[in-house]
Amino acid sequence: MKKILFYSDTEDFGGHEIMSVKIANYLSTLKNYEVEFLYRNKNILHQLNSRIKTYFNDCKDSTPFPFVKNLNFFNILKIKKNISIINPDIVIVCQGNIELSLKGLIASKILGKLTVSYIPYADNFRRNKSYLAFLRDFINKYYYSLPDYFITPNEFQKKNILFQSKNNNISIIINPIEDIKDNNAFFNKNKKISLGIIVRVLFNPKNHLISLVISKKLLSENIDFEFHVIGIGKDLKKFRSIIIKNKLKDRFVFHGWLEGKDKDKIISKNIDIVLIPSRVETGIPLVVYDALKNNKRFLITDFKEIKEYQLPDNFLIDINDTESIVKKIINLNNLESVNDYIDFKNNLYTKNSVKNFKFQVEEAFRTI
After folding, report:
1. Which of 208, 264, 282, 351 is the 20 to 30 Å CA partner of 177?
2. CB atoms within 10 A of CB 322
3. Three-class SS string for 45-96?
4. By CB neighbour count within 10 A (0-12 exposed, 13-18 middle, 19+ buried), where does 281 fall?
5. Structural contact between residues 156 and 132, judged by C-beta atoms closer than 8 angstroms
6. Using alpha carbons only, how large is the chain's radius of gyration in Å?
7. Contacting residues for 311 by C-beta, under 8 A, at least 6 apart
């Protein structure tokens, strides 16, 4: 029996953390694996099943500029000691990108453990015009050389990893759609358009401030609307403050962090269109699954990362053209035909089914 340790030191909780939990939970049901989890965010603990032994990680990810700040020798030695005591055969380092949970990656390699990077985003930083992008991409080439294996959610990210690393030991594990009970959809035209933001509140990658520009444009066209925000994050307090400063407080409703039935209830009752204007995505984000599960329309940035999923044009936006986004919102609110929506929903469900997810997990860990 192989002992597998999942390692995470992020204080955030989003799609990647949810997926790490799903993989760990499923692995723990298979007879060949003993699964343990070294976590930082307590939401991870609450979602792990009772078969998994857990440990709290008292070291946290160091941001901004984690490619340098995570090189804390004292903390790396501390993590090395913790991993050594647990003594796993395999360490799965849950990295949002190659710079995150870096201390765990380095500690695992120092110990000579078989080290796997579970990484959903492997593009370079120059593409996103990040701070110190050239330097970060240069240093990150070394970090990409450390893992023995990679796990990533789709073919696009696999190609990105191969661009960064000569290591072709890469397994794809999809983000599964767990249930779509209702295969029908009926769209209403609403006098008041209710837009949803369902995500960690982070300005840079998630691009939440565009909602203020959209709001002002909708107001200028005398269109009634409101935003419902489901989520928390380090920029939430600042987001609320900016909304008040721009005199839009009555247009935004904040629901906090919700899960399961509580989240579905708000989406079903209060949201018409889910807005996903991110600057960075790894593929189809889990918030699209939330929209599909509740038969809600959505608008998502037209990324290269999602081309393989063949989304209808009605649901794609250019985040650099606010006027076109507003037109898309109005058009989507008026949309009556559901054929393209149903076709996409069925295709995604077939491709990203729980059955396929389980098969890919088993195949990946049979190889590792």
Report:
1. 208
2. 16
3. HHHCCCCCEEEECCCCCCCCCHHHHCCCHHHHHHHHHHHHHHCCCEEEEECC
4. buried
5. no
6. 21
7. 300, 344
Q: Where are the alpha helices (DSSP H) in the chain?
A: 15-27, 42-47, 66-69, 73-86, 102-110, 133-144, 155-164, 203-206, 210-220, 236-245, 260-270, 286-293, 322-334, 339-351, 354-367
Q: Is the pLDDT of residue 183 over 70?
A: no
- CB–CB of 41/17 below 8 Å? yes
Contacts of residue 142, defined as CB under 8 A and 6 or more positions apart, other chains included, come to: none
Give residue for tokens 């949002």.
96
Selection from 182, 176, 153, 174 nearest residue 349 by Cα:
176
For 96-106, the pLDDT digits (tens) are 899 999 999 99
| Residues listed for the chain | 368
Which of 143, 142, 123 lies closest to 133, judged by CA? 123
- Neighbour order of strands in the sheet with 170-172: 53-56, 33-39, 2-7, 90-94, 114-118, 149-152, 170-172
pLDDT of residue 180: 63
| 65: region left, alpha or beta (phi > 0 left; psi from -120 to 50 alpha) | left
Q: Decide: residue 106, CB within 10 A, 0-12 exposed, 13-18 middle, 19+ buried.
A: buried
DSSP state of 269: H
* Residues 6+ positions from 148 with CB-CB distance below 8 Å: 114, 115, 116, 167, 169, 368
Query: pTM for this one?
Result: 0.88
Orientation angle between helical segments 133-144 and 155-164, nearest 10 degrees: 90
Sequence-ordered list of residues with C-beta below 8 angstroms from that of 90, at least 6 positions apart, any chain: 2, 3, 4, 5, 113, 114, 115, 116, 368
Over residues 198-242, the pLDDT tens digits come to: 988 887 778 989 999 999 999 999 999 999 999 988 899 999 999
Distance of CA 77 to the CA centre of its chain: 29
Dihedral angle sign, alpha carbons of residues 30, 4, 257, 186: negative
